[in-house]
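Protein entry
_____________
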Amino acid sequence: MPDGRHSEGPTEKCGVVGVSLDDREAARPLYYALYALQHRGQESAGIVTHDGFQQHSHVEMGLVGDAFDEGDLGSLNGETGIGHVRYPTAGSVDSSCAQPFSVSFKSGSLGLSHNGNLVNADEVREELAAKGHAFTSDGDTEVIAHDLARNLLEEDLIRAVKRTMGRIHGSYSLTIMHDDTVLGVRDPEGNRPLCIGEVDGGYMLASESAAIDVLDGEFVRDVKPGELIVLKPDGSGFDSYQLVDQENTAHCFFEHVYFARPDSRIDDNLVYDVRRELGRKLWEESGVDSDVVLPVPDSGRAFASGYAEAAQDEGAGVEFAEGLMKNRYVGRTFIMPTQDARERAVRLKLNPIRDVVEGKTVTVIDDSIVRGTTSTQLVQLLKDVGAEEVHMRIGAPAIIAPCYMGIDMASREELIAAGQDTEDIREEIAADSLSYLSIDAVAEALGESRADLCLGCVTGEYPYDIEGETTDREVARPEIDGAEAGIADD
């Protein structure tokens, strides 16, 4: 049975942001940007700024709107800063792991926001502790901060970041503030997203381009895997340093399927367009000519739109309809203390419109099935209001293994598809038919090869060396003593 923290579906990871402005306070733009990234984490929110002389920090548990008031924003002085919204996938659920993480040392101050998961955090923590570093949390973000701070005592900023990248291993997108300089770093496999935007008076970094849009900014481009971006303190531009090059990337396909906002652009793809294309491919692979197609709100909507459009293009009499209404004022299911309460929460959150489904054959489009509780309840709800048949179509491959790269998905024992085939799952959720999208269809929709995607949760084979798990390819830790990093001015 899931514990009290787990939700029925995959849980958001984290969101990071950084800004460097000219003659304009950074706190309020950071606050608005964090609002745009709230879907990526709801446990804590924080902002760290620098006024050219000292660092200012405000980090609280809770949603962005609860974590800050006017007084808090007014105290965050400075034209540069970074921010973070967190859902914990490594470390405790308390204020000790809330971010940005701040540390002061001999050569200045450091703030760091992290989206991702390291797979060697314990090893690096033990090494640093043996050298006298004192840790205040059990999270991997503090490990990165301490390692970088140590390197800054011996190296310039660029070399220090490169050395840290050579020591940490796993998924990470970082926004960093060293004194009043803001940096962005994306891991060599590009597992977590990070992009650059131009805004009024300067430049910014963010997990998703939607955070740039909310500031009326212009999307510039994605940060490349293994790239360091340094925003100029006067807001006039940024410098790029390609610190590590890998043969293959390991982009997280689930960003496009589930996590990212549909209006965000990630790795040259608009998420909304990708989801519609995934829906079209779902029809091509396993379409069923039912009377009506219903999306599970909200993440299934774009899939269902593409699915219905593809069906209609082939002359199928399939109608797209909003037949499931979502109650947006019910808390997420992971706060429910018992299985009965979690199942009741499904009924509270989703209500079918009887007139849309009664006496009809229905195809329900969802982005994923994790534990199966919601799908089971949903099929029963639709049949209770008169649906003659309920067919489930899923816009992603079956999730058979946990994610170790920053998604709180579920344990292997809790995953309905772990150890069961599609027909077993169909029987368990009591649907008339069930089909998942193929891995090849996902790769085609993203315009990527399978070798450049992280598919661990749907294959059980991971692109990182994870203890106790197999890997689908060897991902070497980047060397730090090789050629100098390439430098390009933007």
In short: Residues 1-8, 89-96, 332-337, 473-490 have pLDDT under 50 and may be disordered. The longest strand covers residues 108-118.
